[in-house]
Amino acid sequence: MVLILSAFLMATGAMVMERLLSSISQLFDEAKPPHFLQMHTGDYDQSALQGFADQHEEIQSWLIEQLLGFDSAAIGWNRSGTGESGDFSDRLIDNLFVTQHTEFDFLVGMDGSMTVEVMNALTDAHRAGSTIVMVTHDPKCAARADRVVYLRDGRLVDERAAGAWTEQSADTRADDLLAWLRGLGF
Questions:
Q1: 62-66, 130-134, 166-170: which has the highest mean pLDDT?
Q2: Is the dihedral angle over the CA atoms 121, 123, 124, 128 positive or is it negative?
Q3: How many independent structural domains does the chain possess?
């Protein structure tokens, strides 16, 4: 019996990993992340970079993105349920924030248009059998989920089974979800 259970758990774990990797691959296809990233500090010659890009036809687009350093001691956390708190002052990593670029948004289109495309890709992946775990503060995105789990301060507040999403029910479903979340203090 133990061997059967072990084999079942291993097979289930393998299926979950396969679906997760498939979902990540599809997200990378849709998100179009950069193929090359160079981090640099100090001065640089923008005209030399432009000249390099012009000489290489395989470079379709490029940008220089400003990163803002942030004092780790200023980034804090607080768990209201336990009273624990702290900051990141003793961490060895740099805390860098990316500034918004006028020509490129790293997550969605400047007008929010990519949100629909990304959500459609995730919906298609889910319909094809992939398991999607999404963390969002956007009720319209959350309304696409078959099941919504509402967390506050790291604790489960409530959950709701919503069934399969359809384009025809999108607005009503988002409104119903938002009303449910507001009732929980969202």
A1: 166-170
A2: positive
A3: 1
